[in-house]
Structures are given as C-alpha cells and as structure tokens.
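Hello,

Following up on my earlier ticket. Below are the two sequence lines again, exactly as submitted.
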Amino acid sequence: MSPTVADRPGTPERAAPSPMLQRLAAERATGALMRDRGTLYLADGQVVHAESPATPGIDVLLTTGGALRSEGWWDAVAQAGAGQRVARYLVDSGRVPGGALELCHLGALYDAAFFALAPTHTPARFRYGVSHWIGTVRPVPVHAVQRETLRRRELLDRIWPDALTDSAPLAPTAHAADAPVPARQRHVLALVDGERTATDIARHLGRSAFHTLVDLRRLAAAGLVEAVRPAASGSASASGHGRITLPEVTNDPDVALLRRLRDALEAL
Amino acid sequence: MPGIDECLIEVMRLPGARGASVVDWTSGLALGTIGESPNGDHEATAAETAEVARMAAEQPVFAQAGPYAGSTGPPVPAVEDVIVTTAPGYHILRFVETAFDSSVFLHLWLDRAEGNLAMARIRLGEIAERLVLA
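Thanks for your patience. The regenerated structure is below:
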C-alpha cells in the first residue's frame, strides 16, 4: 500500500514550518510537540494526532453531525482512555465505522496541525514518551503534514489575501450577494453575527476550522463578510487631523502587507 | 470493517482501474491513494480533481433537491458523482456522504478500453457507501 502522500525527493522543499519537527521525525521520536497554537503527537517520528484550541476536536466533529452520541464518546473515553485506544474502541464496539473514523480523524489531524504549525515567536517544547489517549488511527509522515500546512496557507491567500477573517470577530456586510451562495457557505454565513470568530463558527457547525476559514475567505472575497475591527481608541480620535486612523489590530507584518496589496489591487 | 486502504484496494479490483484516491475537496488533500495517477503525482491530481468536485457540488443548477428529498430525514446529496471522459480513460468522482461534516470524494481513473463505465460507476457508489458504514 502506498503511503498517503508520496515522497518526492526530487522536489525542493520550501522552508519547513518547524525545523524541530523535522529533527524529531529524523530521530523517529515519540512524544508531544507543544507549540503556541497546538500540539502534535508523534509516534516513531510520524504524526499520529494533533490538537489545537482553534479547531474542534474529533469528539465535537463526530457528535455534532450525529455520527456518535455524546454518551457513546464518553463511554469510549471511560472504557479505553486509560489504555490509550479510544479510537480502536469506538470502531470495535460498533459505534463508528472504521472508514468514517479514519476520515474524521485524518481531517482533525491536518486541521489542528495547520494551526499548531502557524508561525510563532514562542519556542516549542517536546515531551518525550508522551502519547495521546485517542491511540493510533492512521499515522501521517511529518513531511506530508508540513507540506500540506504550507499548501493550505497558499490556498487561503489565493482565495482572499487578508488573514484577519481567520481570527477576528466577523460581521455580515450590507452587500447583497452577486451570485447564489453555495449551501456550505450559507451555513457559515448564517452564523456570522458580529461576535463569533471562525473558531466559534467551526465549533458550532462541527466542521473543520480550516474548511471554515476557506468558506469565510470566499465570503470575504464576495464582499459578504468582513472582520470586525476593534473600535478606535480615544487617543487616535483626539490626535486625529480630520482623518480616521485605523488601529493596528495585529503585529503580523504579513497581514499589513497583504492589506496594502489588496487596497492597491482594489484601486486599479 | 473497511478503512480507507481496504476500500482503495477494492476499487483497484475493478477491471481497467488504473488509480484511485480519497480526496477532501475543500482543501484538495489526498487522504489515501493507490495505483497510478495521470500526471504521476497523486497530490497534484487530488488538488485538481478537488476543484472539479467543488465546482460541481456548489453549482446551483445541480443543487436542486431531487424528487426523493423529503422534508424529514437527512439531507439528500445533490450531486452523486461527476464523470469526465478523456481519450484514454474515464475519471469518476464519487461523493462520500458521512454522518459528520466533511467534503470527501472517491476518485477512480479507469482505462477506456478495459474499463466498464456503467459497472464501475455502480460499484464505486457501493464502495463509497461501505467506506463510511459499519
């Protein structure tokens, strides 16, 4: 059986999101890599699980859609959590079909890894020997996770080059839709209320956070959703010279650059 | 209890099957692959076919509910599959309906001379169902 993603030694690798992860894969490490926005669990140098506060966990994904009742989830955790084989138990006890569990778990793994591998200035920590109670479902090579994470960043920026919709509270615009909004985006749009963020909406829908980001960037590109910018502080209006000063909402220089780029494109 | 790999092996037993994959159409990620791919790169193939699947799934004209879409029960998938015919082969993209939120399809690349499109389409539908059923 071929691996999930074929190795392509001839392809020049782009800058790895985490050099530390690369080293851990090379030494076939087992443990938990804790980064600013999430944790990757490795077994024998392969990624077996990932978690991030930005993404709904596999429990939320399975129970929100009705694939599993929440009692079923907690029973599995109680029965098999200590033995670190919750996933195996869910399948063996007939609660979740094997293929469905693999699809859902892989989706959750890549989803959390995308956020866990986001650029950060906080140093990562690795705890050797730690494993997750979900157990092993379908291990993924580190290089596949890193490459997919980079590809996903590019995909988002191709749709709409402003990352603010990824993290800020979102509001619907007064703009009418030029074209019919596809059903999956409509479900996201219906939850945009001026307060919820992409993570809140993902959790609500039981949908992968990255999928929600894709939908939100498409909605932003269509002019239907915009990020709520924090209210201008008093000092800005006091020193204002008849000009509205937008507050700096993030220190990420990429976002500022992307916004300038968008403004320039719009001015064309 | 079939998983992704077992389903892909089963797909490859179809006469004329040259390659197959399980792909997420929102991200374009191949979750599992087997056999050949037309351009020798399963990853690139997944990203390209995902775009076709997404376009089909999101077009309003195909999104009309069928005659069996009742007001009760789970939502009926609007698009079941997409078939693209090329000179050397067929590509069947079969949407996989899961009980959790997902955007997954099975892609089969079928040789035109050796494959039987009608049979492959039916079998692929059965395999897509079995992938997510106990």
